[in-house]
Design goal:
127 residues; mainly alpha; 92% helix; ABC-type transporter Mla subunit MlaD
Length: 127
């Protein structure tokens, strides 16, 4: 009889231990589930923000009534192309002016040389 009581006592202790382990596992499982639910909710909020930001960015990259980034870039490109053409025109004009100035300088040198040659000839004749 003593063996049966010992056996029942051991069985009861084993059942209490198993119950304790199951309680810990269930509590941990509930905590893990609650943490997973919290993280899922945070993820949904973040995804909504990312979605909204992506929609805003997509809107800015599409032509609209002129206020999008894409429209601003197109206007800037047109302005830059106009400025580049102006610079090319200024360079052509500067080259034309440089050639004209060089021609005038060459002509002035020849004229001055001729004047000084004639003055020299006159001085030689009067001397």
């Amino acid at each position: 009889m003593q063996t049966t009581i010992d056996l029942l006592t051991a069985l009861a202790a084993l059942l209490v231990a198993i119950g304790g382990v199951l309680t810990v596992v269930l509590v941990q499982g509930r905590r893990a589930r609650a943490e997973a639910d919290r993280m899922a909710a945070e993820t949904q909020v973040m995804l909504a923000e990312v979605r909204a930001n992506a929609q805003t960015a997509a809107h800015e990259l599409q032509h609209n009534s002129g206020s999008s980034t894409k429209d601003a870039v197109a206007r800037t490109e047109q302005l830059v192309a106009g400025i580049a053409e102006d610079v090319r025109q200024f360079r052509r004009e500067m080259e034309t002016e440089r050639i004209a100035r060089q021609t005038l300088d060459d002509s002035t040198r020849r004229t001055n040389s001729e004047i000084f040659r004639r003055l020299g000839d006159l001085e030689n004749k009067t001397a």
